[in-house]
Structures
1.
Amino acid sequence: MIVRSFFVFVLALPVLALADELPAIDVEQNAYFPYVLEIDALDDLFDLLDKHLDLSRMETEKRMTKEQLGRLMDNAPEAVSSLLSTEGYFSPTVKIKLDESTVPALVSLKVDAGQPTLVRSVDVNYLGDIVPDEVRMKRLEERQEQTWPLPKGSVFRQSAWDSAKRGAVNTLLNRRYPAAKLVHAEANVNPEAHTVDLTVDVDSGPAYFYGPLSITGLSRYPEKLILNNVQFREGAEYRRNDLLDLQTDLQNLPHFSLVLVDVDLPADPPFIAPVKVTVQEAPLSKISTGLGFSTNTGMRGSFDYRYLNLMDRAWVLDTGLRLQQKEQAVSAGITFPRFASGYEHRVYASYVNENIQGLDTSTWKAGVSRSSTEKYIDRLMAIEYQMERRALNDGTVFDPQSLTAKYQWVRRDVDRIRNPRSGNVITVEGGGALKGLLSDESFVRLYGRGVQFWPVGEKSVVVARLELGDTFTKDPLRVPTDWLFRTGGSSSVRGYDYQSLGLSVGGSTIPGRVMAVSSLEFQTPVYKDWLGAVFVDHGGVGDQWKDWRGSTGVGVGTRWVSPVGVIGLDVARGVEENQFRVHFSMGVTF
């Protein structure tokens, strides 16, 4: 033990000698030094400074030392000036001081922004082949006056300046001049006069026209599958939206997993731009299965099969099987590729069995439909033959049949489809049947639905919904259930069971001729992608409007904005029935 200690002592001697030569470590200098930042600035500048200044972002840093804080304070005036210049303030006065008498220490930042810099003149010049085009030049001048984000007398802001430069070029890029480019842009600031003179020069380049269209990657399907979606002709002037629309339409077809639409822009005349369409074909067959649960119809399982090239004509065959506790369904259909007119056609057949609210219904359908989809508007026309067996709890049975014609119009004008915050969605439907024409009763059914989104603050939203429906007929018992109305459940009047609001006949809830439902909901963020919601629903069904009685549901819920859509869970109280119900939904209800 003595020998071992001796060797340890001998080995330690050089280390001890070296330690005598090292400088002493200032423990206090490297100690954690907490601080609080107090910003004194104009309201519209406070958020900018609070969000982007290092002094603000490092306020909660647990390894902050006094020396690091000193460097941040030294850099603060320059950082403030740089940030304020983006908002048009080029001569700010910045004062900063540190008060160590409190714990944590107090850093006071006082900012006098000074006078904002105003736009004194705007000079936008277009060069190139567009100059002789007097009509287009006049339109550009008119557009500039209406949309230029920095008019004379406005406060200069960097974001608006960047937008203005992009807009001056994009106006040409979008139509006829895809080679347009910004050749000069200058913001000449006079800090003494607090003014700025803006100059932008844009070279339009040559005017381009569509050349021939070539297709690459197509092996299984006929070329008309693509050509029927082309809405422009060879020789027409170039429009960027034409290409974007074509790419979107082709990408929406199930036949392709990847689509790229592009043009070649020759540098020398004639300025004819050939259009190139490159596709990657999707697998011919697709099988999908699923398990789930719905608060409306209970546990469910599904099986779907799709084949994309029936008869080697790119016809899409789809079949489906749905097994749920309260509903079972089987369906099959063939969808034909879009015609050059822009319409898509489909033939289909289905069988559905439901046992909901004491009403046992078996329905057979077969029909043909014609539909079109535009940017905001969907249209559907259908002719359908339907046979139904409807059994009530008291043993009464009805067997209505009908040959119906239907028209549906849907307009979606929202800021985003997955989780809208502003805009509206309107649905209008009309249809009916004539007695004696494969129909037991004449009727006309009208239905309308509107959903309005109002943004509140930065992230909250109010959602209002209104539904109205009326079926004009003498004998509703001879009208199939789908052409009448029941309501209640998720996406309807919450707090009540699915389709429990209707007419009470024979121990069952059967559909009525008139329906009205309204809803008001407020959603606000609570945590990351989670929203909280409070709502009130009111609605009901009647045989006639004079008999209509509404029921009210109130409740709270949560919404998760997932990558696949909005998933909602609600707990609602049915006021009239004094009952609570839980409702689960997926997707935005349009």
Note: The first helix runs from residue 2 to 21.
2.
Amino acid sequence: MEPAYFIYAFAGGLLAMILRLPPLAGFLVAGFLLNYSGYTLTPTLEAVANLGVTLLLFTIGLKLNIRTLLQSEVWGVASLHITLSSVLFVLILGLLKFAGIMLMQSTDWTAIVILAFALSFSSTVFAVKVLEERSETQSFYGRVAIGILIMQDIFAVIFLSATTGSLPSVWALTLFLLIPAAPFLRQLLDRLGHGEMQVLFGFVLALVLGYKLFELVGLKGDLGALIMGILLAPHKTSANLARSLFNIKELFLVGFFLSIGLTALPNWEHVGLALLLLVLLPLKTVLFVVIFPRFKLRVRTSVLASMTLSNYSEFGLIVTALAMTQGWLNSDWLVILSLSVAMSFVVAAILNNYNERLYQLSRNRLQEVPAAELHPHDKPIELNGAQVVILGMGKIGRGTYQRLQQKYNLNVLGIDNDENKVERLSQDYQIVEGDAVDSDFWDKLLVSDQVQLVVLAMPHHAGNVYALKQLRGRDFKGRVAAIVEYSDEVERLKNLGADEVFEVYEGAGLSLADQAMQQ
């Protein structure tokens, strides 16, 4: 692979970080700069990009509760939005056709309908990347957004199968055998430990049993990777597997973002039409914001999920490429949509950096659903007289909970944003689902003066920093203790007002020494 790919990608990502933007915005710009410098999309880079997307879908599946897709706020919103946005885009593109725009005049109504359908999708890759950077893939709004994206992917697969006229092979029925085989695969995962064999097993599941096997029977390979992840999701070590693949997946996804800029070289007419499509992007956002409250979701949940889905999709490019091979669309449209997808990623990356501020600006302009009618996951949190609140019920959070309850006889409440974990721990702990990076969450939490101590035990430093800012910004009078993974994070939390900060590994060492001496 050309060294320039690495140089441009690193420079673009570094510049984006300096400007306080997600690195993916820099990777997209780097792709276009490579294109203008005369570089092209090579088979190697395309393979890396495809591998990144496949691993991404596999890791999504590892974290997905299949019941999420059956909830009305997921399948209902996805179906309603894709229908309404497609109709809306057909009307607007039709008006542009009558307005005399040259490229639009040569586009027939069949092509316009396909374009409208392609524009109605949101990007799975972009949305999950943004949610992961904010550690919000397991928040309620994050789960809803991911569920909607998966429903859109299913719609796309149905469309691709229908338009090509090639139905899946009869052998596709044998894929149902993967369901009874899943327990065996989970047992095998248990025996592989946490080293290179675990990572290699993840690749086998995603690329062989998932991608390749599904392609062989006439189904989309990416869908196979997603389903393999879902089959392993109930296993206790699925989260460890997702973490093991995280950095590899992130590196391969750099290739995906570069490939968008390298897809085609636009002319000024292409740029103009791409900008016009970008101007239409807020219509998708507004539609989501209007639809979500109909399913009893809070304003914050509606706004943040809508912001996450406010972009055009790489699936739109796949739909457009297929229509082009069928002779329904001019090849110019693939260039235009590639450019509009890239532009939408940059704009969405910037806006999602300020999603909380945008919510605060819009909360007084949008009507809130009455508390009694809210979705169960969006209702106010009952403190039940808790004296201590622990945010993050991982191993450290659970250990802290047991110590405070058993030794100090305190009334402790655990809070975690992972629905599956809350359900699993509810028999042994007083635990509720809550999102610590939700500003409304803090208004609900601090209604009682009985809370004497808040323990920040979330696995991601950014979440603990945000929670601490919210606590001190609301004049919380109790004490705050927090954990960090790295020593350079201690000072920042103390400067923000944490009373006690513990390094995870240092604390583990002290505890080990104490237990060893007691024995």
Note: The beta strands are 388-391, 412-416, 431-433, 453-456, 479-484, 500-503.
3.
Amino acid sequence: MKIACIGGGPAGLYFGILMKRVDPAHQVTVWERNRPNDTFGFGVVFSDATLGNLAAADPESHAAITASFAHWNDIDIHFGGRVLRSTGHGFAGMSRQKLLDILQARARELGVVIHFEREAPGLAELEQGHDLVVAADGVNSAVRSELGAHLAPDLDFRPNRFVWLGTTFPFEAFTFYFRENEHGLFRVHAYRYEECASTFILECTEATWKKAGLDRASEDDTLAYAERLFAAELRGHRLQKNRSIWRAFPTVKNRAWHHQRVVLMGDAAHTAHYSIGSGTKLAMEDCIALRDAVVSQPSLEGALGAYEANRRPEVEAIQRSAQVSLEWFENTERYLKLDPVRFAFSLLTRSLRVTHDNLARRDPSFVQAVDALVAKDASAQSGRAVPSGAPPMFTPYRLRDLVLDNRIVVSPMCQYSATDGTIDDWHLVHLGSRAVGGAGLVLTEMTDVSADGRITPGCAGLYRPEHAAAFRRVVEFVHRHTTAKIGVQLAHAGRKGATRRPWEGADQPLETGGWPLLAASPLPYLPSSPLPRAMTRADMDAVTADFVRAAGLANDAGFDLLELHAAHGYLLASFISPLTNRRDDEYGGPIEQRMRYPLEVFDAVRRAWPEHKPISVRLSACDWAPGGIDLGDVVTAAALLKAHGADIIDVSAGQTVRDAQPSYGRLFQTPFSERVRLEAAVPTMTVGNISSWSDANSIIAAGRADLCVLARAHLFDPYWTRHAASDQGYELEWPDPYKSVTKYVPRFR
């Protein structure tokens, strides 16, 4: 096979090495426009896991690499006048130039032809003369630009500014500095890659960059500014420049990574922010994946398809983590009020890939300090003593006079099994079993305030006395037999109403027996949906009265908490999102006006609901569609609700419009909760792919939410919370009829 590699960085060289190891008869040529020793940056970082991958792929180059790196286990975080150290992380740093020297020598040894200081021939010529063309030409890839119509590239230049510097200061650990001056907050990511050589990445917001005059600074000016700012930390060592130009980090994605016989690799195909590791790591792992695909597939077309199919999910998972990580550093100012220990834990778990559990295995003493601080804060907040050794998820939490035993909430999950709004034994077992299962709070399914406010004919309601009587039976069971608290979620379906049950055709309109729909604006949910009527003042008054009546019935039923559903495109949410609110009166326009009707409903319900009982409001923080709600508007909405007396915001996302494109992943909605909690200064619940007790502990310990709301996990396992306690060696009190279980030791094999 004749292979052309455009770009003589680690990706192009390493792929050539791997292919020559597969078969020395392969002809591999690398073109690099720069000189052999002309590289950008100082050091690269590999995790221990990555080094293991490299060892299996090419033991010879791996041996040379490991002989040249500086290894460390510790992370030092300088914040709030303290240095907080976490250990057990396992990273290696080495000189980027040394890595290139190793790969160049190994490539030549195997017979790879390398042309330095030469532009590669045109793409058409390369395709004509080669079986495979590998575009490893970096973040500014000319090949990607030429094939843009086929690859659909997406470049997102992030708002922060950073500059890549070096220093002779020998850092003992991977080090983060946070230093404020009159211009703003500066962040430093620093690590040693040789005995007396370290990388020193300086980052700040664009506003700080401009205020400091660094947008007009030369390289020498930048070094002088940074040396003055971090003089105490550098202890007389100087900073070094290397094409040290302030940049905005580009997040690169491509809808496709290959076209015909051309394939993208490394930064040409994808980037991941430097705060979670090295792009070099991703590029070299790309090489291994492409090598494996070429070896295993009988055709080039099949190989490139297999490479992308197998490699893309892993890369996209890393990019999702990188996105959350870079946003943490873009918004570090948001975290400055945290206690230094909580700040450090937030930083260490920022990508959501490092959890409370695996950090506890790496560094038990650090996590014990975090847990002790969480317990202390929880005791002060709730007025209850916290048992020694309680994991964060098992600390109490207070909302007005209501104190929850723990931070786990059973999410509202529609059962579509009521009859004319009246729930039955299914709901008693569904809700009762999850209360016995140990959750601190159980929320009913979306419960509608009128017959015309239902999603389907099977939806639960609270608009007749018999509805309250049926719910009272459930509430009394929960109160009598468990320590859980129970809340009701009140809603009106709006334009998403009068549909069939999901198993009969999700979101499809009823064939017969439908009812008129209301919404902020006359926009159907689906093209086949009935057209809703834009609400008049009389409609608003009538629906507000329905919510007030439902709140009274909820209190009659004995519920501990009430939640207003103002998310997911239902009636109240249709006023909040600009996608569904096209009004030109005082209820449309900026967020303050779009919130007017939801606040009218909230105020009326708050007056009708007992003062000592809390109210939550569920909001959608993202519509995942062009023109959707801005997260800044959600923060404003949450702050308005807090000012009107809301006790906690249940931060969800999506389901506003049918053609939304959610960005799924682990804990994919938690960053929304964190921002609302910190910027609106209001307690929050978080939802969205919380799948483990370690996730819950991580969220609570880092202050990303106050309560964790789980849906499908509780459908799969009603006793999820009890099992989480057992897994962590933490004792939960069992109901008397189940006390014998304390002598039971489960076996899993």
Note: The chain has a mean pLDDT of 95.
